[in-house]
Amino acid sequence: MNKFRLIAGMTIIASLVTSCGVTKKSTGTQSQTTTQQPVVTQPNHSKISSDALAGEWTVYTVGGNKVTGETRPYINFNMDDHRIYGSNGCNIINGDFELSGGSKLKIGNVISTMMMCHDAPYEQAINLALAAVQSFDITKKGHEYYLELRDSKGANLMTLRKHNMDFLNGTWEVSEINGKAYDNPDMQMVIDIQEQKLHGNTGCNIVNGSLMIDPDKSNSIQFQNLGTTRMACPEEIMKGETALLVALESVEYAKKGRTGTVVMMDKNNTPVLVLKKVDVERQ
């Protein structure tokens, strides 16, 4: 049996539990009854439903200090069973949360694994912040969301950030590479932000890869570990394949383009790819 500690208020109590796995979202059938969600009002922002709390948030600041490093702490809010899970930069954490009165939020029954980490400067601050949370605010800047967790006096304890790159999900046809138009309906790719995967066709070969979103950059998207099959095709198609693979490897940012398109740019914000959304149902 694994050993855990209970974070309750300012006291951490060690206890034994039967599992230290990450809580997963419920996959059961949802009731057809709809419940009106409380709304969080933001000055100079549109009203944002507390449903926006759902999902994974990267810890941006805690105790007034900006969080940096390769291993970023994160919190995932599961609205189905009002559970949180995530990482404080060293250990996996799980707990409950309760919403009330629009922007009231309490987090409790938090447990964590007991791994010792030599480089986890934010672990204790995150644990204490979670225990002290009494309310929250959500603001939207561009297509990114910022979540502020506050104490009983309204002081900021922790700010978390959620990238909203979901507009990239789906099937896309490559329409431009480095400013050159392409009209090859076989040159397509499927992007899955949730699974962080890329799958597609270069116009000749199957391509697969992973993707990464840099928590320090807005509009961030990078394609990694690209691999293809090795079928030979006519020269012009192979040139297009090479251009596509080189462009994918150089992508650093993405933004919405004209209706039904996205533009992908390199580190200098130079457009390298234009993708056009494919209506899968009409294919």
Summarize the structure.
With 283 residues, this protein is mainly beta. The chain is built from two helices and 22 strands.
Structural commentary:
With 283 residues, the chain is mostly beta strands. The chain folds into two domains: 50-162, Lipocalin (Beta Barrel); 166-277, Lipocalin (Beta Barrel). The chain is built from two helices and 22 strands. Strands 1, 2, 5, 6, 7, 8, 9, 10, 11, 12 and 13 form an eleven-stranded antiparallel beta sheet that branches. Strands 14, 15, 16, 17, 18, 19, 20, 21 and 22 form a nine-stranded antiparallel beta sheet that branches. Strand 21 and strand 22 form a beta hairpin. The chain is elongated. The N and C termini lie far apart (52 Å). Residues 1-47 have low confidence and may be disordered.
* Distance between the ends: 52 Å
Helical run tally: 2
Q: Estimate the helix proportion, in percent.
A: under 10%
Annotated CATH architecture of the largest domain: Beta Barrel
Tell me the overall shape: elongated
Total beta strands: 22
Mean pLDDT equals 84
Number of separate structural domains: 2
Highest CATH level, the class of the largest domain? Mainly Beta
Order of helices and strands: EEEEEEEEEEHEEEEEEEEEHEEE
Question: Could you say which structural class the secondary elements and strand pairing correspond to?
Answer: mainly beta
- Proportion of residues in β-strands: 35-45%
Low-confidence blocks of residues: 1-47
Largest sheet: 11 strands, antiparallel
User: Which topology of the largest domain does CATH recognise?
Assistant: Lipocalin
The radius of gyration is 22 Å
